[in-house]
User: What shape does this take?
Amino acid sequence: NPPFNEPSDRASPHADRAEAHVADDELFENWIKKAATLLHAKGNLAIIARPSSLKAILDAADRRFGALRIIPIHPRPKTDAIRILVTAQKGSRERLAIGEGIVLQSSADGHALTVAAERLVNGQACLTRG
Assistant: This one.
């Protein structure tokens, strides 16, 4: 997964770590272009990112990937998504879809995972198109 932190986020004072964790302006264009060259026909791509990166991801995937699916990831019920999961398939002509969001924690204290999140974490469920 590409780094998705903004330069204004808590970047590491170590140059090599900062480079590995902080996104530059061309990050998604470069990552998705490279993924398109490395993946076989009908190969799948999955990226987790901040919601503010959605336009850059969609622009970079245009004409390279189809069957894009966006899944919002919410920290708690009734909160804005803090991450998005974007999946895509190389060469597909299937249209963009927005999947059901995932809520990670069932309580405000952040200690109890939702049943869905716990199943994902424990490998009892996966995020598939459907």
Observations:
- The longest strand covers residues 65-74.
- The chain has a mean pLDDT of 84.
- Helices lie at 15-21, 27-38, 54-61, 115-121.
